[in-house]
Amino acid sequence: MASRPSPDVIYAELSAEDNSTEIESLCTQCWENGKTRIMLTKIPYFKEVILMSFSCPHCGFNNNEIQPGAPLQDKGCRIELKVERAEDLNRQIIKSEHATFKILENEFEIPPTTQRGISSTTEGMIAQAAANLEKDQPVRQHIDLDTTGKIQGVIDTLKAMAAGQQLPFTVVLDDPAGNSFIESIGTSDTRLSKTLYERTREQLQEMGYNVPQANDTHTAATAAPPPPKHGADLPDHLRAANWDFSKSIEDNIDKRREEEESGNIGRDEALFFEVDCHHCGTKGRQDMCAIDIPGFRECLVMAFNCPHCGVRNNEVKAAGAIGDKARRWTLRVTDPEDLNRDVLKSDSAAVRIPEIDFEMQQGTQGSAFTTVEGLIGKIADHLQESNPFTGDSSAQNELSAFTQTIDDLRKLCSDPSCLPFTLVLDDAADHSFIGRRHPERPQEDDPGLTSEAYDRTEAQNDELGLLQMKTEGYEHEQPP
């Protein structure tokens, strides 16, 4: 099994060219001064992170740590990985300082205070845990032989798991901050699952956030009623930015409706409002416009531009309610003319191309209104630019397979010998659309395009949040 460089090697390779900063800091082992090297960077498919590496020239003590540079996420995350093959031991793992690492089979747990803020692999996490336990075994032998023997059994089990000799087993990474990550392998990774959840007040307090208690009568009496919740159960000062953003959208929509009724604004004119840039945190401009897609429905086009850091992004979202059923669009691309068909892909749509064994799960890429050729090109560009596991630290067989997938996607649009192929858009919310070859002649048959409505599965309803949504009798319930 190919192995990745250890975090020690990665940190040791940082240089002045990496925009790193060195500061003098105190060594906690010998109380002499050592050096801490800090570098700000961003891991694609993850968050902004801060890499820190400390070394002491006096006693030789070294310490490496990774901390998220991104803000607290809207929800916590629980990532579960079923380690069934040797390749699963080589998956990259990022464990934030608030995350708990568990192995369910032997009820083993690495708390947030241990191995905090590291970038490693499944094998590396387990092997390091075994090494940490084994380090104090000689001392335990002189204190309690019975406890020493039990701990030695745990150490032997962990070593067997790290070496791939005791499979399968299940690892869980539970992070209330939402800033942890486990690498996905392949286009359809059935062994990896991720669940988002609402944080409790206790979890927020453990992370250091000041949450008023229910029995704080002075605070309850003087504080203003909180606005409706958005995302996590955040303190008011953290929720304020999101609340102002939502209110500004509602105010602008109401204003636009009034102007439309009075005839002062056209349907193709855009609204704009200020929102915080997710890169630099300063105010940027968010434009929004409603358009009608022929043969489909009204959609919202949103574009953001930050004048300070220059970041730009755009997105298209289908307006209206979630469809009564899921819908699967299937297009048989037989000639270059099919590559020019209009495509609206929502963020709830999965994309499949069976001929090259490619599948992209829903939520992997944002929504877009483009053509078949443009959609495939965007997917290839997104994979090439954003995947963090294509560098020197990747296993060679994984890198070759990933590169081949990108090449296959690009050939679909540039090499006529790759025709025909099949493009499938499977949207649980029924917010996606593939246009006809000749929309100006709707009476003509279009045998290459089919659309199938089907009943959503329970898992799809859960992904869309429909299982937790109450649509009847809610007006009679008392607020919490």
From TrEMBL:
Keyword hit for Metal-binding: yes
Source superkingdom: Eukaryota
Family: Belongs to the ZPR1 family.
Gene Ontology terms, MF aspect: zinc ion binding
Keywords recorded for this protein, A-Z: Metal-binding, Zinc, Zinc-finger
Name listed for the protein in its UniProt record: Zinc finger ZPR1-type domain-containing protein
UniProt domain Zinc finger ZPR1-type: residue ranges: 25-184, 275-436
A Pfam family recorded for this sequence: Zn_ribbon_ZPR1
Region (Disordered): 434-480
Organism: Vitrella brassicaformis (strain CCMP3155)
Gene Ontology cellular component terms for the protein in this record: nucleus
